[in-house]
Design goal:
Layout lengths: L4 E2 L3 H11 L5 H12 L1 E5 L3 E4 L5 E14 L2 E2 L3 E10 L4 H16 L5 H25 L4 H12 L8 H13 L2 H4 L11 E5 L1
Antiparallel strand pairs: 1-2, 2-4, 3-4, 4-5, 4-6, 6-7
Helix pairs in contact: 3-4
Length: 196
């Protein structure tokens, strides 16, 4: 069973409200705060895939969104959050090797076993660097809300009935005024939500 993470944490809400505070419109902040208290957004554990050529990592999360109405949760809408991260493995070991060159140069012995140990430490550092990159790619509440806002205003001219049905369900869950309080995201962001 997949472990779920709640995106609506106190830190996430505060970050989102600070992001929206740039409008200098107190009523928008208050409306968003009230709306966030009525919502539930959960995130499943990611599926991580490496590309065949080793130039990018794709993360896929399942996100469930619901809204509490009158004490009863409305039906949840599920989305797949997908993000691709470019990875240049050829640069990571070079940076790390430069930082460990001083320690290697000060060693009196330069035997084969010493070189093997040094190569192993470079490999471990490369993995740690990659894991740090994965940690930074966990979706934030602001990003998910921005992607929901983007989906809300998508046209209905899709041939995929499931996508159209989910967009309609999202429009029934939130009014246009409510969705306009959500933060907007950068259109160059390499992430997206797919209704499932």
């Amino acid at each position: 069973m997949a472990k779920k993470k709640d995106l609506l944490t106190r830190e996430g809400k505060d970050s989102c409200l600070n992001f929206v505070s740039g409008n200098n419109n107190k009523s928008v902040q208050e409306q968003l705060s009230k709306l966030l208290d009525e919502m539930q957004i959960s995130l499943d554990e990611p599926i991580v895939e490496d590309s065949i050529d080793g130039t990018r990592i794709r993360l896929t999360y399942v996100i469930a969104l619901s809204r509490k109405g009158g004490g009863i949760d409305k039906d949840a809408i599920k989305f797949q959050y997908i993000k691709e991260i470019p990875v240049d493995y050829s640069n990571i070991p070079i940076k790390i090797k430069d930082s460990t060159t001083g320690a290697a140069a000060s060693a009196a012995d330069d035997t084969v076993s010493h070189n093997n140990n040094n190569n192993n430490s470079i490999g471990e550092e490369t993995l740690i660097e990659s894991y740090d990159e994965l940690e930074n790619s966990v979706p934030t509440l602001c990003e998910v809300l921005g992607l929901l806002k983007k989906i809300y205003f998508m046209p209905d001219d899709f041939s995929n009935r499931l996508v159209v049905a989910r967009i309609h369900k999202l429009r029934n869950m939130f009014s246009k005024d409510e969705i306009l309080t959500f933060p907007s995201i950068d259109l160059s962001d390499k992430s997206g939500l797919i209704p499932i």
